[in-house]
Design a protein that fits this description.
heterodimer, A: mainly beta, 6-stranded mixed beta sheet, 5-stranded antiparallel beta sheet, B: mainly beta
Chain lengths: 115, 112
């Protein structure tokens, strides 16, 4: 079982729809959870960043973390064609001061918003 | 503010050739990373550097070497390129600990 599972899609929805993107994970040590957006032929850019469980809202985007279920979600309201991209979830544990400190990524979900 | 800058953006190599991918960040971050991204495989960590003067292997280090030249710069070297190293390479940095990572725009490498 991979540490982080993410449906690769593609997920195609009409403009204006609410989009739900999800990741599940197996490592209970993960404490920090991020969503990155990656446009074609570009580098990933940070979209949302949350610590531990709970919700975080930023404009049309809401990130949810449920550590008891090891499940995180990203909701996009009023989706726009410009939201079409690949969305990557990423996670890391607490900084250990010496151990591997890289992010663990999901493989990304390719999202298409149809005009 | 440039953030994370990678050079070159594109490169074509012949099998057996060597090259160095350059990465520089201007955010005073401690930690820097090299990832490769392949279709269906997601982002995989090649090497990372938690601080100036230290480097460690990630998930897929074979065929690569790295140098943390100073706090700003972290280079990735392919000594003898192979077609299996055809990929998009991303450099990233973060402050260390709890901060999010920032990525460069990538180097698209083709080995023929």
């Amino acid at each position: 079982q991979k540490e982080v599972e993410q449906d690769p899609g593609p997920l195609s929805v009409p403009e204006g729809a609410i989009v739900s993107l999800n990741c599940t994970y197996s490592n209970s040590a993960f404490q920090y959870f991020m969503w990155y957006r990656q446009y074609s032929r570009k580098g990933p850019e940070l979209l949302m960043y949350t610590y531990s469980s709970g919700n975080k809202e930023d404009g049309r985007f809401t990130a949810q973390v449920d550590k008891s279920s090891k499940y995180i979600s990203l909701f996009i309201r009023d989706s726009q064609p410009s939201d079409s991209a690949t969305y990557l979830c990423a996670m890391r544990g607490l900084y250990s001061g010496g151990g591997a400190d890289g992010l663990t990524f999901g493989k990304g979900t390719h999202l298409i918003i149809q005009p | 503010n440039a953030g994370v800058t990678q050079t070159p953006k594109f490169q074509v190599l012949k099998t057996g050739q060597s090259m160095t991918l350059q990465c520089a960040q201007d955010m005073n971050h401690n930690s820097m990373y090299w990832y490769r991204q392949d279709p269906g495989m997601g982002l995989r960590l090649i090497y990372y550097s938690a601080s100036e003067g230290t480097t460690d292997k990630g998930e897929v280090p074979n065929g690569y070497n790295v140098s943390r030249l100073n706090k700003r710069e972290f280079s990735l070297r392919l000594e003898s390129a192979a077609p299996s190293q055809t990929s998009v390479y991303f450099c990233a940095s973060h402050l260390g600990g709890r901060a999010e990572a920032f990525f460069g725009q990538g180097t698209r490498l083709t080995v023929v």
